[in-house]
Records
---
Amino acid sequence: MQQQSSMDGRPCRFEQGPIRPPSEAGSLLLRVTRNCPWNRCIFCPLYKGQSFSVRSATEVMADIDAVAWQLRVLQRREEAQGPLSRSSLRDWHEQLPVEERAAFRAAVHWRDHGQNSVFLQDADALAAGADELLPILAHLYRIFPQIKRVTCYSRSATVVRYASAELAALGRAGLNRLHMGLESGSDEVLRAVRKGADQALHIRAGQMVRAAGIELSLYVMPGLGGRELSAEHARQTAAALNCINPHFIRLRTLAVPPGTPLEEEKLAGRFVPCSSLEIVKELLRLIEALEGISSYVASDHALNLFEDLQGKLPDDKEQMVGMLRSFLTLDSKQRTLYLLGRRAGIFRGLSDLEDAASLEEVELLQQQLGVTPDNVEEICAELMKRYI
């Protein structure tokens, strides 16, 4: 659908997709593709029943213009009236034509977060191809020269279809970082979850991105192998990461979303999820096996057991390993309190067990919910559904 203009020439339509990485919370979201070109991973609830399509460069550039227009109007009004309150902005939003509101919201959000990063949506913006992406990037930097980072999601199977020169051209044009779902380095796990890639393909794609001068952020999903393949999952994932040496290793602990094929596997008993204790042991195996790389490990998602499990390899490896080992030494009472506190959003890391106010809040919640070492996993699983 082509972008249209209102009677006074201002862009009207603006389109955004449903997701972005947590690290792009303050970014301007521009929809380059709709949905996911693969859409078969059994653990993913997004885009099911929706077809994949590529928006034209003309449409995306019109979206860029729409945000720029809203920012200019916002700046002029604040120069005349002074800073606008949140209630004034809400009133302004409600007075706009419906078709302009999305661009207005995007402009206000981006302005409030510094206007220095952009995320190209949806699940695989690289699927649009270099011929579409290069003019989008050129227009983006021409309209907003202050931008410091432009990122997007992509898939290994998409990356390897690019010529090395095309990837390098995207990097030179200002595509600074790719977010890619490794999920696992185990071929057995990857087949089971229908990822559409194997370890060799992941390694090849990751090395191509690095060679193109683009930052690489790889997502790893603790628990994806279930209880049966947990050790294999950790070992082979570490092996893949050691070959790729991504700039970022981002942890995303598995949750089983309702209505997914993975939930069907779980209900049929063919997939047995790891317990929290087993997840920690898997993480320990994974991090202990990371060797010869300089990646930054990030735990920036609410589903993870430890928000503060992060650091730069190799320097911070022992600190991360030590944290995981400390959890394993907790007695059942402490472990129960920590799991409840974390899943309730009260704790960020193990050190919060020593915060008297936070601990008191968790103990009160434990009494209210009747949480014991025997039922803590079940109750925490219910609490986790808020984050899926």
---
Amino acid sequence: MTSEIEILLWGVYFYDLIFANLSEAPRLGEEVWSGSFELTPGGPFTTAVAMRRLGLRVGWMCDFGNDSFSQLVLEAARREGIDEGLFQYHPRPVRRISAVFSTPQDRGFLSYVDDVPQTSPIPQIEQLQPRCVFLPQLYYGDAYDDLFAAARRADSLLFMDCQATQATLETPGVAEALGAVDIFAPNATEALQVTGAATVEEAAARLAELAPLVVVKLGAEGVLARVGQRTVRVPAIPVRAVDTTGAGDCFNAGFLYSYLREAPLELCLQSGSICGGLSTTAVGGSAAAPTAAEVEAYRVGLSS
């Protein structure tokens, strides 16, 4: 199965403790009560599940240890039928944990990770020649030049999300990394942080001077894409949001579901918006990640 993958996903798991339905974010010295609570795998696990439910053949390259959090995520991955061929196992703890403080509008994280270096994906890229190499965060610097070069040699689409970062375009290596990818997909906060721009439109324009396609996720305001001098906007779908954790991960999966089938950009953005929007209707990033049939049925409803 691993030899037939379309997407090689390289990213560490997280196990999320989600405090949802908050009226406000917690502050030091005060206590805030959540309306609901869930324990669930998160991070790239959400992306892998969302991709698989859409029928994409995804191989998730992830490290696991002998700790209870690793085992919980492994059990969940097996229930979802995720290909285990690229999993790496270590005889020590590989704990990656996030406490998620979630309001209907946004979320924040308090995280911990054991210091375990990720196994390089370069040999797998060279062997498997995937259609897409998916990077769930902003990777930059000399340490990643060989990874980018391996993706180019394999003629793989290189898709990079951002995640929370303190880096900017002035940080050494960031501009070069964005110039090496095919698609860069930050959210609005990340795009403004990286560029220092005053608006997301200005941020997208600056990023598009480096990356061929920039996709900026705007939450309830939808999504903005920039290709050269062309800007495309697609609205968010109307939903009653319960928890926004993992919405961006599900958006990415939906976008690639259509993009790898060479659909028009507007339709790719719509697929992402449908997946991201529907994912917010339940607590946990992957709980409401839709199938391809559900996406297409929703799309029909939008056009009728």
---
Amino acid sequence: MNKTRQDTNWGAPIPVEVAAIEQELASLWKSTSEGEGTVARACSCNLIIVSQDSDEAAALLPILASLAEWHPCRTLLAYRETAGQEPAQAAPPHIDAWISAQCSIPSSGGPQGCCEVITLAASGEAAQELPYTILPLLIPDLPVFLYWRSFRESDRRTVEHLARFSHLLIVDSHRSKDDLENRERLLGLLSRPPSGIAVRDLNWSRLTPWRDLITQFFDVPSSRHYARELSEVEINRSVAVPGSIPTRTLLLTGWLAHRLSWRLISAERSGEQWFSRWHSQAGEVLVRFTGSLSESDQVPGIGSVLLRARDGAEFEVARQKGATCMTASARLPGSTRVHSVPADPMDESTLLKQELSLVGQDTGFQAALAEAVSLEKRFRNGA
């Protein structure tokens, strides 16, 4: 029985002239095809990544290699050089370029799937020319995905220009959680996307297994009425830094509020305890966030979600420290149902694979985001 190898071949970037990129790519693929093994030069989409700096660009290469297994694509990876990265002697503004093929190693006998990567680094005022350098390098008639990995205001003009030619903008609000100024700007971008482009947030995707398991509690006709009779929700999470804003928890609460037609009454917080009260058709609902500092070997995030109905019925989704499964428990009058499902990996590569398989606006995310932003403002104002 053949086993899939987990190794990955990370091609070293080769410096090239910007004007010769297409020619050099053709030469690279020709030399690759003459080596051992079969290499498939397939392409399902264009992926533009606006990176923060050269370190982040380098960290993305293994992620792109993993992505190639599901979405072989042409990736345009662009960043502006910071003062510390530019040569010591001042040079005229310019754009440097590198090419590489990031390939996953397949099952025995199968072809390799590869992403061809064009890396562009702009110096000084040449950063303004990045969109005009990127757009001619896109493969025509294929969808264009734009990934703004680390939100930075100085890159906004570049992103907004590229958004006019893209089908989807992907961001990750988790990366701005400790920078309040950038976080506010990112939330504004998510609420009012540039050029009317569809926007997706990897932080919302990390909530998918939680949302799916909570929804399944009430898919059963005999349990559906409990969704309208909730009186209390407790979301327990581990936090890396005291006082950090629980963006993911706010989004999950916003999703519940939207789906169940709750109306916010009040919100207040004390340390890691956040309390909000909502009006539902059946009466008041208390939503409580609790938190404790994560241990050194523990990934910060939501650990459990408990929903309690007015008659005492409880529904809980939990992920224990170090566990490879998520457990859903329904404790009803006279019966208890428990089932576990494998916990999906939430690494960046897996999340991107999911997002590149989807096209169009996620209206559920937009509605949850609106509720989450409104709730956070109430917490901030203490009312």
---
Amino acid sequence: IHGCCDELESLLDRLGYRVSWEPTLTVTRTHGRTAVFVGDLVDRGPRSPDVVRLVRHMVDAGMAFCVMGNHERKVVKWLLGKDVKRTHGLEQTIAQYDALWASGHAGGEDRRSVKDFLDGLRSHLWLDEGKLCVAHAGLKEDMIGRASGAVREFALYGETTGEIDAFGL
């Protein structure tokens, strides 16, 4: 999603969800469908805080599941005051949150609530009675059923080779 809330709202609409921001955020669904978000909610797009707020609302309401992506990990580090490289869209997310919090119109979203939500996302989920694994970057077969830092890192980043793609990632 990478901060593209307009596109997310359009997709949700096509899937039968109704999103309204006024007077407060509400999401309704017209079916039994459950959305599954695979991380990278933030960075690059113009509305990262709105994406996080929308997904959090859906998760809290039982309409969605969400796993952490590598971009959420960096936002959590920033929210904890750690030194992070402000690249690959993080600089936009920081600017959007800073402007939101400075405006006084954050709708109850503060640093702590955003950090708690993002930091509370799991690295991977097992759905459909264990037949489906959802992870941002994937899992290797030998990691199934294991819980460790290495499993979490693989779920977030996959097989890291040090190579850089066309986007500098």
